[in-house]
């Protein structure tokens, strides 16, 4: 089935995926129905419910919305010939275009905050959590610079000052156990940041005794090895 705009005009979808986030199923359906009416024949919307989430899909529009607890939390925008979708023909976020390949995306958006997939069978993807974007590519090799985009996931942007590692910008699941303030993805990053952070860490500055006891035991040794005891709290 090929859906086209009436009289063959290119379909322009005036629609920002981010605007759907947080809307309930009825509101999302009504936005997608309005868009679908621009195509002939008017394509159907499909709704599928699973135990933990549900999906509202219009393959002809190249759009799928995931709802969790009844609210849209991710909007997927598809490229042509991916899982039976037509190419989404509205404006893509951050100036992206379907002709962009993996190297173009990195050039435009910089180093991603996370990477996933890879290996023999899993296509690779990259995350920009502060932009609220995941970009899933079609092929599974990280070496592939010309990897075409399969689909783009749009979700709520992470506030850049919250939830990301102080040092590397990845998603942070831990925080400094002394000040409970600075966040880190790993003890590795916390260690690397410690010489800088100790000058501002309120928990450390208030308890200088920690210097000799808990925090930096090995700094006292002649070896001068900087192997600080890491104090990380998991965040709940
Ligand atoms: Zn980190
Ligand atoms: Zn601290």
UniProtKB/TrEMBL annotation:
<keyword id="KW-0862">Zinc</keyword>
<dbReference type="InterPro" id="IPR002893">
    <property type="entry name" value="Znf_MYND"/>
</dbReference>
<dbReference type="Pfam" id="PF01753">
    <property type="entry name" value="zf-MYND"/>
</dbReference>
<feature type="domain" description="MYND-type">
    <location>
        <begin position="165"/>
        <end position="201"/>
    </location>
</feature>
<dbReference type="GO" id="GO:0008270">
    <property type="term" value="F:zinc ion binding"/>
</dbReference>
<keyword id="KW-0479">Metal-binding</keyword>
<protein>
    <submittedName>
        <fullName>Tudor domain-containing protein 1</fullName>
    </submittedName>
</protein>
<keyword id="KW-0863">Zinc-finger</keyword>
């Amino acid at each position: 089935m090929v859906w086209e705009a009436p009289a063959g005009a290119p379909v322009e979808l005036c629609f920002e995926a981010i605007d759907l986030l947080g809307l309930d199923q009825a509101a999302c359906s009504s936005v997608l129905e309005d868009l679908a009416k621009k195509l002939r024949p008017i394509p159907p919307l499909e709704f599928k419910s699973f135990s933990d989430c549900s999906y509202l899909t219009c393959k002809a529009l190249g759009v799928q919305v995931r709802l969790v607890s009844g609210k849209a939390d991710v909007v997927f925008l598809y490229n042509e010939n991916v899982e039976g979708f037509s190419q989404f023909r509205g404006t893509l976020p951050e100036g992206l275009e379907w002709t962009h390949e993996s190297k173009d995306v990195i050039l435009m958006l910089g180093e991603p905050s996370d990477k996933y997939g890879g290996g023999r069978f899993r296509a690779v993807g990259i995350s920009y959590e502060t932009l609220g974007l995941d970009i899933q590519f079609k092929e599974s090799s990280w070496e592939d610079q010309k990897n075409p985009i399969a689909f783009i996931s749009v979700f709520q942007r992470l506030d850049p000052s919250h939830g990301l590692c102080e040092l590397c910008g990845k998603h942070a699941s831990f925080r400094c156990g002394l000040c409970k303030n600075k966040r880190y993805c790993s003890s590795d990053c916390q260690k690397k940041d410690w010489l800088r952070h100790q000058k501002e860490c309120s928990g450390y500055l208030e308890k200088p005794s920690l210097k000799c006891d808990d925090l930096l035991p090995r700094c006292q040794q002649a070896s001068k090895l900087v192997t600080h005891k890491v104090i990380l709290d998991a965040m709940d």
